[in-house]
Design brief:
Layout: H1 2-5, H2 25-34, H3 45-74, H4 80-105, H5 107-121, H6 127-164, H7 183-227, H8 237-290, H9 293-308, H10 311-332, H11 341-354, E1 361-362, E2 366-367, H12 370-389, H13 392-396
Antiparallel strand pairs: 1-2
């Protein structure tokens, strides 16, 4: 049923032309709606820029401030559970604002990356290569759809739980709107604002995952090409050298693609690494000590979504290192023993370059991998342990 509404999550037939950049179709559409890209019609550039300014000011700047203003105005009316629920989301929203700004500034980087993908697609001439591209394109779009379901699911569950209890889910300060006298209207306004910021957060989190997923697709295709080198006895030495040269060019394009995206993803993941331990720690304290069934369910969904912000991408970075190692192994095990001197010297040079793994870093400080991610998550358990040792939960209650 889902594929009938969103056909791009299923691999398209070979009769249909599909490009690697099609893996970002749903992502690009939502980013366009948020004002993060460019207007396709130059005549609407001014209108689109005004829309970009509006969404940035309201959602990225004013929304985080509204939660802090509510703390100042109505701190005495918060229960401990309400305050922790609001605080964990407030911290994550400030992180989302930073990530959104970095993603918006990286728009030209994304366009350059797509241009490089178009060049890599030219090497995909065999049916099995096209099939693999179609499969990864569908997977990239499917990742966006699943993130959309999980992130919006948190909003729906959290909102429903608090409304059933007759309370506000996120306690935002909205000018000219009294939250007590206009309960339904203020709740709807909060729902609209939270849905917007969650959608922005979703885009910043899917971007690294989808773009590196496509990079892995082309690394896998290159690995297959390397294993086929000199496997056709009917080709001349000149043709074999030309095939090897094409593989070197494809590898260079993949490295250029990764290097173009490094600055954007380095910033967004760095922000998330700094926040994930604090956010998960606050959420765990809330679930263990202060939550009811509905608030606890919403918080657990929130914790799951926070884990989605880094875990899949860190795992993909680990896999990327393994893929690079397999590239050099595929080239070494290819049929090069009987090749001429020119071919062997080119192969040795290429083999040395392949032995350099693709490693991404967050802010030039942390290596993006599962080990770093787990180290950051351990902070959450440290916060809970500290809470138990000093019996802070009982004192707050």
């Amino acid at each position: 049923m889902l594929s009938s509404l969103l056909p791009r999550i299923k691999p398209r037939p070979l009769t249909e032309r599909v490009q690697s950049r099609d893996a970002f179709i749903y992502l690009d559409r939502v980013m366009w709606c948020l004002g993060w890209t460019e207007s396709s019609n130059k005549g609407w550039n001014l209108v689109y820029r005004l829309w970009t300014f509006f969404t940035t000011v309201v959602v990225v700047i004013l929304l985080p401030m509204s939660i802090v203003v509510e703390y100042v105005n109505s701190f005495h009316s918060f229960s401990v559970g309400e305050f922790l629920s609001s605080l964990e989301i407030c911290v994550n929203i400030y992180g989302c604002s930073l990530k959104s700004g970095l993603t918006m500034m990286g728009h030209r980087k994304f366009q350059e990356a797509k241009r490089l993908l178009d060049l890599l697609d030219k090497s995909c001439v065999r049916d099995e290569e096209k099939t693999k591209v179609h499969r990864y394109v569908a997977l990239g779009n499917l990742c966006y759809v699943w993130y959309h379901i999980f992130y919006w699911g948190f909003v729906a569950i959290n909102f429903t739980g608090y409304v059933l209890m007759g309370r506000h889910a996120w306690r935002m300060y909205i000018p000219m709107l009294d939250s007590e006298n206009n309960f339904a209207l203020s709740n709807f306004a909060e729902l609209l604002l939270m849905t917007s910021v969650v959608t922005m957060d979703q885009c910043t989190d899917v971007c690294p995952l989808a773009y590196i997923l496509v990079a892995r697709c082309h690394i896998s295709l290159l690995k297959d090409r390397l294993s086929r080198l000199r496997s056709d006895p009917g080709k001349s030495e000149e043709e074999h050298i030309r095939e090897l040269t094409h593989c070197i060019q494809d590898h260079r394009l993949i490295l250029d693609y990764i290097n173009v995206l490094r600055p954007v993803f380095s910033g967004t993941i760095f922000v998330q690494f700094l926040l994930i331990g604090i956010v998960l720690g606050l959420s765990m304290i809330n679930v263990i000590f202060f939550s009811t069934f509905w608030t606890g369910l919403g918080t657990v969904c929130f914790m799951f979504d926070v884990c989605l912000e880094t875990f899949p991408f860190c795992y993909l970075c680990n896999v990327l290192v393994d893929d690079c190692r397999e590239l050099s192994e595929s080239l070494f095990h290819s049929n090069w023993m009987l090749a001429n001197r020119r071919y062997k010297s080119t192969l040795i040079y290429f083999l040395q370059n392949l032995q350099e793994p693709i490693i991404l870093s967050a802010g030039g400080v942390f290596t993006i991998c599962m080990q770093t991610n787990l180290s950051m998550v351990k902070l959450a358990f440290s916060v809970v342990t500290l809470m138990k040792q000093f019996n802070l939960a009982e004192k707050f209650q």
